[in-house]
Amino acid sequence: MSGEASLRTFHGIGVSAGTAVGPLVVVTPAPKPPADEPATTDAAAASATVHAVLEQVASGLEARAAAASDHARPILEAGAMMARDPGLAMGIDTQLGKGLGITTAVTAAVEEYCAMFESLGGYMAERVTDLRDVRDRAVARLLGQPEPGVPTLSVPSVLAAHDLAPAETATLTAETCLGIVTEAGGPTSHTAILAAQLGIPAIVQAVGILEVAAGTVVAIDGGVGEITVDPSDEEIELLAERKRRRAAALAGGTGKGSTKDGYPVALLANIGTADDARKAAAQPVEGVGLFRTEFLFLDRDTMPTVEEQTATYTEVFTAFGDRRVVVRTLDAGADKPLKFADLGPEENPALGRRGLRLGMIRTDVMDTQLQALANAYQATGADVRVMAPMVATQAEATWFAERVRALGLPKVGVMIEVPAAAIRSRGILYHVDFASLGTNDLQQYTMAADRMQGELAALLNPWEPALLDVVALACDGGQAMGKPIGVCGEAGGDPALALVLAGLGVSSLSMAPGKVPAVRTSLSLHTREQCQQMAAAARAAVDAAGARAAVLAMADPVLLDLI
């Protein structure tokens, strides 16, 4: 980087609020296959070597998983399973049979797999980063080099990378990793979501960060997505002052969520495992707005039994006592394939038989989960609310509601993540007790933009007026039917966007627990009428940037210290 460029401030997309100043640690790029790599002349011997290396990679990831937290463990185990995928091994053997050099063959086979995963979209597209992480580790071993990854952070530092594999992000801690900046990724990428859960400021799509020399001090603001290279003492002090103002603003935020004039907006946690539940239950949250149950099902050869599921659900419900727990039934299908419930390939699995659509075909999977939830409810008497994903019609809502109520579960709801469900929310809500907006999927379907496609990040900004219009349609239906509408997508954790959502009529917001204090404070600074005015201004804007700017101009100045 030139001297002039090294003094500049540049921007990415802020995905995890907070500020940090520290030396930059750059993740070393993974080694590439040598351009002059010899061709393979003994495919059988080369195959044996590659298979042994893949097993070493898998064993290494498993060893890390054994020492990891409950949250990180399944991510590392998923990487190990990918390294042992027989389809990948067969693909590598095919490339070796063509005479490609050994590391070239690995790279070519992985890229073929990645192209297939990306074409599938959804959950499978999300696994591409894991797959390339396996490739990089295998290539390094084959070249006799150390496996790539996050180096040991001897001093608290800001981490920079092109992208981070979930296996790497999940093992970071806020004590040593002050912040994360990546050139790739998007607002709903693994890096963004995990950083928010860990309370680490993070910025994605920061093109140019890898041009900054390792060891250079950088200042980052994860709220606005700003990076200052080699900041002056004055700039560091300004950032420190903002950090102090943010801490002061958050200090008074306790109790239940509500606007300044008392309109209640419940502040809830998103969780994915029993360990998440234990940690979230210790935080000042009003319950769980989204309990993702997929971790019990994915990467298994057989369906988890009623007894297995009951034990986990009971543990989660017990952790939250009398606070609500909203459970999303299994969100799987062609884009999150299950070995024991694979319906076969589909042309466009993101629009295929996923979520409730799978449950209506494999009623044994649905009924087993609902029975386990009913058992756990009967054992705990908890405030359990069960909702189905990917609901699009009244008929689907009716089918699900009848099944849930037949087992004595107290409240049944649906996810609104398909525009059709928002447009027809009155009819759908006639059959259920509540709905929750999954803004991540709702946005990608509204904007026809894959949320894992970093290049389309501009279309995936939750401030898009078109998305707010769709949310408004859903909320209008909720108000007409007297049924509560919540938000459990990433949009709910934005302190500024929370004001708009409250103004549209949302009655609960669910997010990573670390985001709750800022959202609580933001709501407490504004009346419901102000929130409604902000919502109208945001919807009237031309684009996402204009919507956000309009709200910030109308908001209490303290809000700027919270984002």
Summarize the structure in words.
The radius of gyration is 24 Å and the shape is globular. Helix content is 46%, strand content 14%. The protein has 3 domains: 3-28 and 149-245, Glucose Oxidase, domain 1 (3-Layer(bba) Sandwich); 43-142, PtsI, HPr-binding domain (Enzyme I, Chain A, domain 2, Orthogonal Bundle), CATH 1.10.274.10; 252-561, TIM Barrel (Alpha-Beta Barrel), CATH 3.20.20.60. The strands form 2 sheets. It has an 8-stranded mixed beta sheet with strand order 1-8-7-3-4-5-6-2. It has helices spanning 3-6, 43-66, 73-83, 86-97, 102-120, 122-126, 128-142, 166-169, 190-198, 233-251, 274-281, 306-320, 356-361, 363-380, 394-406, 419-423, 425-429, 439-447, 465-481, 495-504, 516-524, 528-540, 544-554, and strands at 9-11, 13-16, 19-26, 157-161, 177-182, 202-204, 217-221, 226-229, 266-271, 287-292, 324-328, 384-388, 411-416, 434-437, 485-487, 508-511. Residues 1-6 have low confidence and may be disordered. Strand 7 and strand 8 form a beta hairpin. The protein is an alpha/beta fold and 563 residues long. Helix 20 (495-504) crosses helix 21 and helix 20 (495-504) packs across helix 22 (528-540). It is built from 23 helices and 16 strands.
